[in-house]
Amino acid sequence: MDWAINNLSQILFILGLALLAIEIAVLGFSTFVLFFVGVAALLSGVLIFIGAIPETLLSASLSVAVITALAAILLWKPLKNMQNKVDTKKAKGDLVGHRFVVDAAVSPTENPTYRYSGIDWKLVSTELIPAGSKVEVTEADVGVFHIDKVVN
Q1: Closest Cα to residue 108, out of 121, 130, 127?
Q2: CATH code of the domain covering residue 128
Q3: Among the three residues 84, 113, 135, which one is the final residue of a domain in this structure?
Q4: N or C: which end of the chain has fewer CB within 10 A?
Q5: Residue 144 pairs with which residues in a beta bridge?
Q6: What is this structure's pTM?
């Protein structure tokens, strides 16, 4: 136990880094609890190291608790707003832009399949595309190609 008391600042610093790593790497910054406690442990370790607070378990625990509460109060809203900023634009995959000639007519009511890369893709279009037309994939969902007719 004497070893832990004599190295309290280093233990708090390592604990803080470990909690931050778990929050960011494992939990993907989805909860902020470990983040707040990790920051508080880091700051408490620094405060003990520079001698701003005594090197006792009671003062370290109190320091971590107070800094955790302050960090939560000050950072909750900005972090929540940062987390809510989500890009709604769909990612463009490698299949988008693929061009081919359809063997059968495609329309909102007719959805033939097209075999590509070993997969049978259901073809979907909002307009009538006659058989033999050159088309381009505009969007690719699971097992579905959304296509438009290519105008030369």
Answers
A1: 127
A2: 2.40.50.140
A3: 84
A4: C
A5: 122, 141
A6: 0.56
Q: Kindly report the CA angle at 112 between 109 and 118, in degrees rounded to 5?
A: 150
Per-position DSSP letters for 23-56, written without gaps between them: IIIISTT--SHHHHHHHHHHHHHHHHHHTSS-SS
Bridge partners, 121 (sequence order): 114
68 by Cβ neighbours in 10 Å (0-12 / 13-18 / 19+) ranks as buried
Sign of CA dihedral 102, 108, 113, 115: positive
Task: Please check whether residue 89 lies inside any domain of the structure.
Answer: no
Q: What pLDDT, in 10s, does the model give residues 105-114?
A: 999 998 999 9
Report the distance separating Cα 14 and Cα 132, nearest Å: 66
The CA-based angle 11-48-14, given to 5 degrees, is: 20
Q: Is 110 within a domain?
A: yes
Is residue 19 included in any domain, yes or no? yes
Distance CA 42, CA 65 (A): 12
**For the segment 61-89, what is each residue's pLDDT rounded down to a tens digit?**
999 999 999 999 999 898 888 877 777 77
Amino acid at 140: A
